[in-house]
Structures are given as C-alpha cells and as structure tokens.
Amino acid sequence: MKRNYSRRYANEYNIFRYMYQALWCIFVAIPIFWLFYKFEVRGRENIPNKGKFICAANHISYFDPFLVSVAVKKPIAYMAKKELFENGWFFTLNMDLLGAFAVNRQKLEISTIKTVKELTNTNWLLGIFPQGGIRKNYTIEKINKGFAVIAKAAKWDILPISIIGCEKYNWIPFKSKVVVQIGKPISYELAEDDIIDQWGKQVASMSHYQYIETDIVETEQDSKQEFADV
C-alpha cells in the first residue's frame, strides 16, 4: 500500500526526527553554507520567544529549507510539493525523516490541514514557501493564498524570511554570499489579503526583489472552513 505523505501525526515529530534534521543542519548544511557562500543571518531578534508561528520564505534553491532551519534554530516541518515524494525511495525516505510532508499545490486538502493541526501538539514549527516552486527571477509574485488561510485557521503568526545569494549554485569556496534575513512577525488576525500583502512587501524589501502585489494565486477550496470542521 502506497504511503500518504501528506498525512502526518504528532508522534512522528519525535526526538529521532528532531535529531535527524539537526544533524543534517550541523554536519551538512552549515559547512556547505560557510565554505561556499559566506553565510550570514540577519534579524534573529525578530524571532518570537514563545508560541507557534509559520516560517514563510521566498524559494530560490533546494538549500532553502536548511537555510531557514539554520537561521531560526528550531525544528521545522516543511510543506513540500507532492511530486518531490515521487523521486525515488532514497530521496523520499530522506524527506520523510526530515519531517517534511506532501502538499497539493493546486488546493489545500483535508489531509494537509489535519497534519497542520497535529503540529499544534508538538514543539515543531511549520515551514511554507508561499510562492510554491523555486523562482529565480528576483520577483515576489504568484503568491499562494493558502499560507494565509492556514495562519488564520491555526491562529499562528507568520514570520517572513528572505533568502538571497543562492539563485545560482556555487561550488567555488568563498566566492558567493548567502543572506537570510528575518522580518517582523505578521499577525494572523489581519485579513488574508493584508497578510499576503505584508509578507510580499517585507520579503521584497529585505531581498531587494520586485513585488508584484496583484498576482495572487487563489486556493480552490474554502480551506478555512474545512480546518474548522476537521
């Protein structure tokens, strides 16, 4: 029977997965960042000291989840497009052990919403890339409304995060620089469109990207109501 990687349970986010993600960050990600990119984190003072929140960053490379985790220094369960769980058993197993879960980018499904609710019973945060796939065009656009719906339904504030510098992969030591900047938290109590607008403007300002504020991708379902009904 094929496993449903969009449905995760609180007991899966245990000390084993926490250590697996932490070891990846410490022994793989951080050495790569420091050696090839002159890694820098700004704005850690903006990270809330307590409570749940969503880490929402722009998406420019496959390094991004590790960049966000290293910057925030907390275990983060990332939403990942379901196609990534179809790239062979080794890649799928690694995604699973890192705590990622599959999401349909076309709509928010009930299984995804249930997984988010399960995270409320853990010490893990939720990681989302509101633009969906990787975008290297130096533009904040095509923002999926789903992250704002989830924030309001779960009552978690959003921590905007910008990533610049690895739009192109570099394997020459110390040639490039990657900067991860953490912005001011955005309240879930705002209207959905205001959440999207604030996230887009903050990330665009921190990354010096262009923000196209009218280009918002709507979800296909009233996921907020579905969340309440679960």
Structural description of this entry:
It contains seven helices and eleven strands. It is of the alpha/beta class and 230 residues long. The mean pLDDT is 89. Helix 1 (15-37) packs across helix 2, helix 5 (146-154) packs across helix 6 and helix 5 (146-154) runs parallel beside helix 7 (223-229). 40% of the residues are buried. The strands form three sheets. Strands 1-9-8-2-5-3-4 form a seven-stranded mixed beta sheet, with helices on both faces. Strands 6-10 form a two-stranded parallel ribbon. It has one domain (10-229): Glycerol-3-phosphate (1)-acyltransferase (3-Layer(aba) Sandwich).
What's the helix-strand series? HEEHEHEHEEEHEEHEEH
Largest sheet data: 7 strands, mixed
- Number of domains as seen in the coordinates: 1
Shape: globular
- Extract low-pLDDT stretches: none
**Can you tell me the CATH architecture?**
3-Layer(aba) Sandwich
Summarize, please.
By secondary structure, this protein is an alpha/beta fold. It has helices at 15-37, 64-72, 89-97, 110-119, 146-154, 192-207, 223-229, and strands at residues 40-42, 53-57, 76-81, 101-103, 125-128, 139-140, 143-144, 157-164, 179-182, 210-211, 216-217. It has a single domain (10-229), classed as Glycerol-3-phosphate (1)-acyltransferase (3-Layer(aba) Sandwich).
Please specify the SSE layout and strand pairing.
Blueprint: H1 15-37, E1 40-42, E2 53-57, H2 64-72, E3 76-81, H3 89-97, E4 101-103, H4 110-119, E5 125-128, E6 139-140, E7 143-144, H5 146-154, E8 157-164, E9 179-182, H6 192-207, E10 210-211, E11 216-217, H7 223-229
Parallel strand pairs: 1-9, 2-5, 2-8, 3-4, 3-5, 6-10, 7-11
Antiparallel strand pairs: 8-9
Helix pairs in contact: 1-2, 5-6, 5-7
